[in-house]
Amino acid sequence: MATGGLGDTASASPSFIAALHSDRPAADRTQKMGLYGWLIGRWEMDCVIHDDDGRAHTGRGEIHFGWVLEGRAIQDVWILPGFFYGTTLRVYDPGIDAWHILWSDPRCG
Q1: Which residue, 2, 36, 43, 108, is most buried by CB atoms nearer than 10 A?
Q2: What is d(CA 100, CA 69) in angstroms, rounded to the nearest whole number?
Q3: Any alpha helices (H) in 28-90, and if so which ranges?
């Protein structure tokens, strides 16, 4: 039976995270996942962003990488307050022995 709806947003969050997150790469592609797997964890970054007019803005941000979708993909979240908040989904495709990579920044487009 399906459950959910607008009123269930807060209670659904822990189950969504549990469904998305994995502790390790899928056994059938562990070797190939190593290309990005070494990034798993939390990282801090210092950034310089240049406007179209050449002005530089500096900031401190963070990046979080984790195994997702039964360990068949890696998802990361990039956060630089005031500039961007985006995510990358990296999925290894054994059928073509290559990666599909999708970046999205809903704040900036």
Answers
A1: 36
A2: 14
A3: 30-37
As a whole number of angstroms, the distance between CA 87 and CA 63 comes to 9
User: pLDDT tens digits for 32-57?
Assistant: 999 999 999 999 999 998 988 999 99
d(CA 75, CA 101): 10
Instruction: Quote the CA–CA distance of 28 and 95 in Å, as a whole number.
Output: 12
**How far is residue 94's CA from residue 14's CA, in Å, rounded to a whole number?**
30
Is-above-0.70 flag for pTM?
Answer: yes
Total length of the chain = 109
> Which parts of 40-104 are beta strand (E)?
41-50, 56-68, 73-80, 84-93, 98-104
